[in-house]
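#help-structures

NK: newbie question. if I give both the sequence and a SMILES, will the prediction place the ligand too? trying with zinc ion
OV: yes, paste both and it writes out the complex. here, I ran yours:
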Amino acid sequence: MGYEKVHGDQLFDGQVFHGNNIVLIRDTRSGKDSIVAAAEAGEDIQYVPGLIRPGFVNAHCHLELSHMKNRSFPESEMNDAMQNALEEMKADGIVAVGDISNSAITVPYKRSSGMHFQNFIEVLSFSEANTPARLLHYQQVLDTFLMAGLQSSNLTPHAPYSVSATAFEHISKTTANQVISIHNQETRAEDELFRTGGGDFLQLFEQFGISESPFRTTGVSSLKSYLPYFNHGQSIILVHNTYTTREDIEDTNATQGNPPSPTTVD
Ligand SMILES: [Zn+2]
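OV: that's the protein plus ligand as structure tokens.
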């Protein structure tokens, strides 16, 4: 063999559509793909109905929460739900997943999935007092992933309103030049917390017995309050961005590659 040849009704290379008079040839030894005119592609060409394209990337998934999809979640259904979610993603043409993990329960499913997983071990740490214990816990979760051979795994912050300054610093130091992810500016209250120290988040903190904002009031948006922590070449996937403003985006672009010192927020 050595070569696999396929053509479809349309071929998309990730940037350009090539039409149907074209053949994708894969060298099965090197894994290298070539796009060749049908007249020059030779024999043994397999027709695949529909569009031929690169695999999709699901940049934000919570595989371990799959059982909550239909809002009925006895524990016994969790494993089936994770397996079903993997099958669904595969059927959708997804080949790589950025997955938020609070525990290691997804490890066996990821190992046998045949998909690439970038595992974001999500740190939640509201108070400075609990931060050392929380970081120890999440490091153990991370170690479980690494020891299982899932090397694309690192710590990641949950959200600006749920990660202490010390935890942000620890995550930043341990993720130099890696990809991280954070739930950003999902609600208006998130910005208000950092701008004024008040707003609806205080009710959430009260449930944890915390009477005032555990975070420094910076007078600027949540994004601008935490972004300076990540000054070690990280690429950051910002999730939600419901209340991200033009100013936030312009300031973020302006500081790209040259972030301000983290001392501005601690
Ligand atoms: Zn999420």
